[in-house]
UniProtKB/TrEMBL annotation:
Keyword Transferase recorded: no
Region (Disordered): 1-30
Compositionally biased spans, kind Basic and acidic residues: 9-24
Name listed for the protein in its UniProt record: SDR family oxidoreductase
Domain of life: Bacteria
Lineage, uppermost ranks: Bacteria, Pseudomonadati, Pseudomonadota, Alphaproteobacteria, Hyphomicrobiales
Biological source species: Hoeflea ulvae
InterPro entries from the UniProt entry: NAD(P)-bd_dom_sf (IPR036291), Sc_DH/Rdtase_CS (IPR020904), SDR_fam (IPR002347)
Length: 277
């Protein structure tokens, strides 16, 4: 059975109940002089991270697929924090785009210090038999290949003290019946974090991950029917979905010197759900 893929990753500008992305605290210069590239930086967790990084002194490159209005809104929010920003449109599943995007970032800012590999898509299916080859390939190309490609493109420009942070998911640890292929990609990303952290440690480049639980982003209404959206996140111990600005501080911690003795690790902003590594 072939099922049409949803419009992914969704448009924040079209959401009635907007996610919360505003940083909660004044900045303290923890990323002063740094340049950060954020794939999927136009909305949701990516937007909150871009705004928080800007408040902490970083210049920001926002990679996005199709959501131009969201990307421009994020750029304006970054600039309101006193930082510079550029937006770059394309598909991270395309290696050539990733190489070109990184080149443009370095051309604009003269350096690259932090890579946030965050872009992702997911498509809910009731039965594994309904996961068509097109969906399987597309989900892996965006979620796994996209992280590989952007990291590969960035590595020649990263120096000791740089940080790579990959977005995985709670689904990598406990699965998700409706998101089997997505969960598989997120498990691959956990392994990528661990392997790459070991490989790059001698160069002084740290690699870590963030595994969000149910976070209210455009991806949710773009994935699930209204009844599941209505109950989204209520199963967590905290009894609600998280907001993007509750996740962004994990990326900040892993990007700055506060986490200088951490590599190969994954943080779990998931509403209190215990997970095993």
């Amino acid at each position: 059975m072939t099922t049409a893929l949803q419009d992914q990753p969704g448009h924040e500008a079209r959401m009635k109940d907007k996610p919360e992305h505003e940083p909660r605290y004044p900045g303290s210069g923890r990323l002063a002089g740094r340049v950060a590239l954020i794939s999927g930086g136009d909305s949701g967790i990516g937007r909150a991270t871009a705004q928080l990084f800007a408040r902490e002194g970083a210049q920001i490159a926002i990679l996005y697929k199709e959501e131009q209005e969201d990307a421009e809104n994020t750029r304006r929010l970054v600039e309101q924090e006193g930082a510079q920003a550029i937006t770059l449109q394309g598909d991270v599943g395309d290696c050539a785009f990733c190489v070109n995007a990184v080149d443009k970032v370095v051309e604009r800012f003269g350096r690259l210090d932090v890579v946030i590999a965050n872009a992702a898509e997911q498509h809910a299916r009731e039965d594994i038999a309904d996961i068509a080859e097109q969906q399987l390939r597309q989900t892996f190309e965006t979620n796994v290949f996209g992280q590989f490609f952007i990291i590969q493109a960035a590595l020649p420009h990263l120096a000791a003290g740089s940080a790579i942070i990959c977005t995985t998911s709670v689904t990598a640890y406990r699965g998700q019946d409706l998101l089997i292929d997505y969960s598989a990609t997120k498990g691959a990303i956990v392994a990528l974090v661990r392997a790459l952290a070991h490989k790059l440690a001698p160069q002084g480049i740290r690699v870590n991950g963030v595994a969000p639980g149910p976070i209210w982003t455009p991806l949710i209404p773009a994935t699930f029917p209204p009844d599941k959206v209505e109950s989204f996140g209520r199963h967590t111990p905290l009894g609600r979905p998280g907001q993007p600005n509750e996740v962004a501080p994990c990326y900040l911690f892993l990007a700055c010197e506060d986490s200088s003795y951490m590599s190969g690790q994954v943080l779990h902003p998931n509403g209190g759900e215990p997970v095993s590594s």
